[in-house]
User: Which sequence fits this backbone?
């Protein structure tokens, strides 16, 4: 009904729901089978009410007829046997009303045309199957004589059944006479019965009329509600919601196999727990040892009812007859019901899971060799070794420490070949990835020094020299940058001094990270201090530096070049943003859920990124997949300091302030369907924690599964497989 | 053989390669006997005048415990017959002298009788006589020397001896130098660089000469192996690199007006052996009489056998993930031992009759990176040095544990080079040079 309210509103007639729900007495049952379920319900309700009324009326009728005594009244007599009063009904006597079959009719052929027996000597059969012979019949003269001689002949009639004349009874004669006289044929009928005065007569006068109200207008005005209801039905018929004279589809077959349906999937209701069986103590005649002594009884009485171990006192009776009624029966039943009601019955499903099956199936680390397993050698700095860099060919390691000492040493032997001493902290080191030239960059406070290592082939040396200090400088950029590029004059060149220096703007703070683009022409640096974002991108061939971001929200922790695309990752304290440098737009913002990002590295494929945080978490991002981490590893007990992917092997390492390095196998599949496989392989311990700092940086040797790690204890360790 | 002690006895058959053979016979020996008892048994059975201590090898392992304990550890029933090989014991090495250096020693040579030669990372070659006196000291290279070998020796007269020495360095070149040692301590020893060998574009990792001293092999980080003869050319075979003004000035300043007469000649290789795909860490010649063959190992996890005359790689042994650091041939020339960074020294059978054997015939396990190996004069004995500062003496018949070991510099510094000649082990490394006495096989 509610669904039609808008149409009703269109007619401009406001109605409240209560009135709408009442349906006028219009017989529309056939039309309203399935379309108006609500209405049908209403209708049914009304029908039921009507039926109930009728039933009430029909039930009340016998009550009304009670005084008419349809049944004979019973007499109350004293029984001879019991001496009690009993009711005796009069015997039923067969009379006019009773069944005529009890009459003794000799011919039993029934109501058939009797002319079938015209040619027969008999007229039928009696009860015993014997022929009833045709009575002798005289001729016309004899019949005439009979009518003259027999005085009762004129009051007899021919009985077809017996084929003879039978005299009429007095009742029949009286009936004929009454019919002749035009009277009521029933002699018993009294047309002049005394009138029963229901509403008239003494004491039954109607003092007041039933209603003195004037007739309301609605009695002669066509009903508005009726019209609305009819219109509603008409509309429904027009719209096809009601199909007139629709055949009644019997939805439910009248007969069906009750066992054909499978039983419901729900478990049958749980049976109530059974009460405990009575024990010997509850017997009416318990053994003596169950009876309470006086002390026990006293103690029983003193304890609270809740604390009693049994809620009754064993009693001893000599026989069951002497057991009195159980006085606490109601209370016990009530408690039992309470128990059943208050305690929901739940079947506890026991989890039958093998705990081994919950552990993900990972390949064993021994099948994922090679990976570094032991400390091969150790190179010691006098103070905290903050950064390391490996040469592209994997043979040399540069390590820098807090005192400004930069050492170049051979990876396989650990022999320091050359040492540079600078004033200030070394914040970052990175080797140029180009193979045709060989130099590395030292981030020393606010200066970047370009240093050529010794023992280079002459061709490489000259190329490096011309790259770093070209004879003809490229033209300076139009808009001068605050970054100065200085080359010392050629006559002062030595191996100990840097050939080229980049002076970052003052008060930009320690250069905390240097990262090269894979082609070796662009280099990005991050400065830790200062109020600016601190990110600079330096182009070596143009000797030009630029800040890619005017303003970065948050403090930049790390930057990375994408290995294949012109993309650039910037990690602030909580987010990693991926920019397209050529189009200069933000591509993605990754939310690792780390409070303070400390490190990140990008997989060689460029589709995967690992981010480590000071809150011990390591997040693996599948850049194709989501902005949320694909996996979060939390294996370190202290802050993560450094992460590095191996350039060849499917390995990555993470170092932490807990003094340990963890090696992971990280296999990335080329098909996009398979998730990366990350298997923790090995925890390398060997660094000591100094001033709360552990392993500050890890770097892989490019050609071998060897790891170099620098720690706060000044040690630079080489881990071999 | 009446056993004095009660208890179970074990049937044992002795065999040996020493000159003290026992008749092949089964002995029933008490299970509680140890090495000392067995050694005494052999001495008494052979009634040797001078007692010779023996060590006993059971199934490739030196017997260190009693026989019963060995049996229970290895799961051998006491009824089984044990075949025990006995060898002469190696006396525990004794330290003879300690010669500290200013810089790390990369290579040691004991070849010259009476002298220890060391090549150091400061570019110096030093010589010490047996009285720990430094008799020679010259800077041959300006860069660290990685290895050194004697090419030939020449006893001119009683007063002087002249030796040709080949050194390889990180400065991408190898050099042939003439060292003149004065036998008279008052006179000064001299050295002169005769030729520089120019081929490599990476640091030269090793240099080796054949026993006759006619040819040299150099290996380098640039994956090349150079073959050189040792004749000194009269003029430069390789042109000087084009130098910039700056360098010319510097050189003029350094050299002054020195004539070019003493300048080392720039020498070109006879042949370049190319097959390695990564750094070649060591190249060695075959043993005496077999110097047509050379053996090299590298970071590409291969050991290659070269036909030097034809300059081809005749055989390649490929290991899996074993960057090799050093290679040495056993004295009989049948086995190559290659030390790799996975802390093993792997044995390869390199005899030609063994065909294409690429599987190792055994390995010596180390707790740290083995850096250097040298073979003794007998076929079964080698000495290896490792980064944990421990020098181990191995018998190849007992590969499970070393026969003897000693700690150089108390085991705190890396060992980078060893040499073993005449019962003396020269150990070079971080702490300089140490000389230990380790008796070789008595038969020599």
Assistant:
């Amino acid at each position: 009904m509610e669904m039609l309210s808008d149409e009703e509103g269109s007619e401009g007639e406001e109605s409240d729901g209560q009135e709408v729900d009442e349906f006028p007495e219009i017989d529309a049952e056939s039309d309203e089978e399935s379309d108006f379920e609500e209405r049908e319900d209403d209708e049914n309700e009304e029908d039921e009410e009507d039926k109930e009324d009728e039933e009430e009326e029909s039930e009340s009728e016998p009550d009304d007829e009670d005084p008419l005594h349809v049944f004979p009244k019973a007499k109350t007599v004293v029984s001879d046997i019991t001496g009690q009063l009993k009711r005796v009904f009069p015997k039923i006597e067969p009379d006019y009303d009773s069944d005529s079959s009890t009459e003794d009719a000799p011919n039993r052929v029934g109501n058939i045309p009797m002319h079938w027996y015209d040619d027969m000597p008999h007229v039928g059969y009696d009860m015993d199957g014997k022929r009833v012979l045709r009575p002798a019949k005289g001729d016309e003269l004899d019949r005439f004589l009979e009518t003259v001689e027999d005085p009762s002949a004129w009051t007899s009639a021919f009985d077809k059944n017996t084929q003879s004349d039978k005299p009429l009874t007095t009742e029949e004669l009286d009936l004929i006479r009454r019919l002749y006289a035009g009277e009521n044929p029933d002699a018993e009928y009294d047309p002049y019965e005394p009138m029963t005065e229901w509403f008239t007569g003494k004491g039954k006068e109607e003092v007041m009329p039933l209603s003195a109200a004037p007739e309301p207008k609605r009695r002669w005005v066509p009903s508005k509600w009726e019209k609305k209801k009819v219109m509603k039905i008409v509309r429904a018929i027009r719209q096809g919601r009601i199909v007139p004279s629709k055949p009644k589809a019997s939805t439910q077959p009248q007969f069906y196999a009750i066992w054909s349906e499978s039983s419901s999937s729900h478990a049958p209701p749980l049976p109530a727990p059974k009460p405990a069986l009575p024990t010997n103590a509850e017997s009416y005649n318990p053994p003596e040892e169950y009876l309470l002594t006086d002390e026990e009884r006293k103690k029983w009485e003193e304890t609270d009812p809740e604390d009693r171990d049994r809620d009754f006192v064993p009693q001893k009776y000599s026989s069951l007859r002497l057991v009195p009624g159980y006085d606490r029966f109601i209370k016990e039943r009530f408690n039992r019901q309470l128990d059943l009601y208050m305690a929901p019955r739940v079947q506890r499903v026991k989890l039958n899971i093998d705990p081994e099956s919950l552990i993900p199936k990972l390949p064993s680390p021994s099948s994922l060799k090679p990976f570094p397993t032991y400390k091969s050698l150790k190179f010691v700095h006098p103070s905290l070794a903050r950064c390391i860099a490996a040469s592209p060919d994997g043979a040399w390691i540069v390590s820098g420490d807090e005192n400004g000492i930069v050492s170049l040493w051979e990876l396989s032997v650990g022999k320091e070949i050359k040492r540079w001493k600078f004033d200030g902290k070394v914040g970052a080191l990175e080797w140029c990835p180009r193979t045709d030239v060989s130099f590395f960059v030292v981030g020393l406070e606010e200066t970047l020094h370009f240093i050529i290592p010794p023992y280079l082939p002459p061709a490489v040396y000259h190329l490096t020299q011309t790259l770093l200090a070209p004879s003809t400088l490229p033209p300076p950029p139009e808009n001068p940058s605050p970054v100065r590029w200085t080359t010392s004059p050629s006559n002062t060149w030595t191996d100990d001094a840097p050939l080229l220096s980049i002076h970052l703007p003052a008060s930009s703070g320690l250069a905390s990270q240097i990262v090269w683009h894979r082609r070796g022409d662009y280099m990005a640096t991050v400065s830790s201090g200062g109020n600016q974002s601190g990110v600079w991108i330096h182009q070596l061939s143009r000797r030009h530096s630029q800040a890619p971001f005017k303003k970065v929200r948050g403090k930049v922790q790390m930057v990375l070049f994408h290995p294949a695309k012109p993309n650039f990752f910037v990690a602030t304290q909580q987010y990693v943003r991926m920019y397209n440098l050529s189009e200069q737009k933000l591509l993605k913002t990754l939310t690792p859920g780390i409070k303070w990002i400390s490190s990140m590295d990008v997989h060689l494929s460029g589709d995967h990124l690992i981010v480590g945080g000071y809150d011990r978490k390591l997040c693996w991002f599948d850049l194709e997949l989501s902005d949320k981490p694909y996996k979060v590893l939390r294996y370190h007990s202290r802050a993560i300091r450094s992460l590095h992917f191996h350039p060849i092997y499917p390995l990555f390492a993470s170092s932490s302030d807990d003094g340990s390095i963890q090696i992971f196998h990280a296999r990335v599949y080329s098909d996009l369907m398979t998730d990366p496989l990350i298997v923790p392989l090995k925890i390398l311990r060997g660094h000591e924690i100094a001033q709360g700092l552990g392993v500050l940086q890890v770097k892989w040797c490019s050609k071998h599964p060897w790891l170099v790690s620098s720690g706060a204890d000044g040690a630079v360790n080489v881990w071999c497989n | 053989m009446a056993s004095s002690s009660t208890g179970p006895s074990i049937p044992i058959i002795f065999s040996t390669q020493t000159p003290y053979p026992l008749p092949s016979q089964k002995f029933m020996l008490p299970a509680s006997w140890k090495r000392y008892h067995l050694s005494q048994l052999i001495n008494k059975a052979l009634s040797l005048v001078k007692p010779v201590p023996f060590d006993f090898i059971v199934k490739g392992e030196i017997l260190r415990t009693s026989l019963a304990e060995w049996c229970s550890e290895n799961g051998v029933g006491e009824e089984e017959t044990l075949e025990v090989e006995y060898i002469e014991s190696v006396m525990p090495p004794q330290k003879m002298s300690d010669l500290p250096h200013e810089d790390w020693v990369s290579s040691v040579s004991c070849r010259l009788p009476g002298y220890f030669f060391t090549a150091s990372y400061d570019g110096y070659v030093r010589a010490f006589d047996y009285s720990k006196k430094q008799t020679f000291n010259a800077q041959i290279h300006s860069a660290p020397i990685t290895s050194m070998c004697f090419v030939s020796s020449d006893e001119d007269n009683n007063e002087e001896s002249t030796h040709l020495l080949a050194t390889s360095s990180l400065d991408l070149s190898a050099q042939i130098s003439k060292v003149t040692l004065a036998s008279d301590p008052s006179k000064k020893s001299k050295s002169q660089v005769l030729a520089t060998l120019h081929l490599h574009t990476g640091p030269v990792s090793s240099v080796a000469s054949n026993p006759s001293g006619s040819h040299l092999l150099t290996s380098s980080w640039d994956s090349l192996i150079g073959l050189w003869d040792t004749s000194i050319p009269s003029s430069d075979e390789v042109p000087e690199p084009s130098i910039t003004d700056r360098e010319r000035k510097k050189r003029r300043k350094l050299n002054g007006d020195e004539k070019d007469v003493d300048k080392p000649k720039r020498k070109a290789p006879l042949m370049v052996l190319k097959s390695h795909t990564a750094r070649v860490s060591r190249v060695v010649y075959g043993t005496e009489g077999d110097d047509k063959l050379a053996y090299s190992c590298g970071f590409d996890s291969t050991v290659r056998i070269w036909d030097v005359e034809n300059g081809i790689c005749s055989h390649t042994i490929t290991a899996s993930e074993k960057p090799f650091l050093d290679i040495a041939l056993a004295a009989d020339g049948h086995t190559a031992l290659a030390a790799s960074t996975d802390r093993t020294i792997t044995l390869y059978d390199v005899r030609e009759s063994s065909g294409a054997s690429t599987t190792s015939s055994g390995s010596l396990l180390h707790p740290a990176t083995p850096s250097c190996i040298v073979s003794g004069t007998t076929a079964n004995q080698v000495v290896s040095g490792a980064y944990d500062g421990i020098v181990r003496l191995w018998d190849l018949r007992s590969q499970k544990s070393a026969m003897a070991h000693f700690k150089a510099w108390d085991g705190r510094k890396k060992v980078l080079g060893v040499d073993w000649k005449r019962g003396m082990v020269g150990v070079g490394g971080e702490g300089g040079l140490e000389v230990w006495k380790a008796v070789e096989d008595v038969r020599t």
Observations:
- The CA atoms of residues 143 and 171 of chain B lie 6 Å apart.
- Chain B touches chain A through 31 residues (CB under 8 Å).
- The longest helix of chain B spans residues 35-46.
- Confidence is low (pLDDT under 50) at residues 1-5, 255-259 of chain B.
